[in-house]
Write a structure and sequence with these properties.
This protein has 258 residues and is of the alpha/beta class. It has one domain: Rossmann fold. α2 crosses α10. It starts with 16 loop residues before the first helix and ends with a helix. Keywords: Kinase, Transferase.
């Protein structure tokens, strides 16, 4: 069982953050190249509290990725058109093609979290959502897509400090709105919803990884490491061989390059 209270130490990163981050980003770049050349696809689903640091993780995750082969999907309230369909419909529209990686900044888990807590889904709808989500994820995995699921956790005190920082910084204020404070007021309800979410959807095929987000640097290294480990395990990491024809033409044009 996943208990979020076990992810609140907030220990400082014990290492050379800049050096280790650069090493991880180089590793992740190779992993993306492997997805491109071996025609693999992956989904990275990131959930967590408001101001937990999801955006910072995503920026550093993709810093050295080729933008042609990944997409970041920030998920907010569904549009009227999306509401007219099954709740998973809008996510089907955003699934990655071959040799691409899709990153979801919030996900289909809104059905059993915000929609449950705020009353946007009926009890029958959100209770049915667990089975529908597990089936959806299993379908992606069974058709060759790697799925990584992260939840970034912060304490109430740390979240409050970050909200204060946003409010006091003129160029960060846009990141905070009424929803943040409405969600904050119902933290206990969200806590219960997340507990059931983990219990019902932390499956063998699609496990959750919880990141202690209370120290930003440590959280970023932990998140990128977890993503790299999962992606690397599901794609061949051998670089492609050059064909004899390419070698012949290249030598004629360039001479030896070794």
């Amino acid at each position: 069982m996943i208990d979020l209270s076990e992810y609140e130490a907030g220990r400082k990163y014990d290492g050379d953050y800049s050096e280790d981050l650069a090493r991880l980003q180089k590793r992740l770049a190779h992993i993306q190249y492997a997805h491109i050349v071996h025609r693999r696809r992956a989904i990275i689903a990131i959930e967590g509290w408001d101001a937990a640091g999801k955006g910072g993780i995503i920026r550093r995750l993709t810093a050295q990725w080729d933008p042609r082969y990944f997409e970041v999907w920030p998920i907010s309230a569904p549009t009227p058109e999306e509401k007219a369909h099954h709740f998973l419909w809008r996510f089907w529209q955003r699934l990655p093609p071959l040799h691409n990686i899709s990153i979801f900044d919030r996900t289909w888990y809104g059905r059993v979290a915000v929609e449950r807590v705020e009353g946007y889904a009926s009890e029958a709808e959100w209770r049915r959502g667990y089975t529908e989500i597990n089936a959806f994820e299993a379908q992606q995995i069974d058709t060759g897509t790697t799925l990584v699921k992260l939840f970034v956790h912060v304490t109430q005190d740390e979240q409050d400090d970050r909200l204060r920082d946003r409010l006091s910084h003129p160029w960060k204020r846009w990141k905070t709105g009424l929803d943040d404070f409405r969600n904050r007021a119902r933290r206990a309800d969200y806590w219960d919803a997340y507990a059931e979410m983990f219990a019902r959807t932390d499956t063998q095929k699609a496990p959750w990884t919880v990141i202690d987000g209370n120290n930003k640097k440590a959280a970023r290294i932990a998140a990128l490491t977890a993503i790299a480990d999962r992606l690397e395990a599901c794609v061949p990491m051998q670089p492609p061989e050059l064909s004899d024809e390419v070698i012949k033409v290249a030598r004629e044009a360039l001479g030896d390059w070794d």
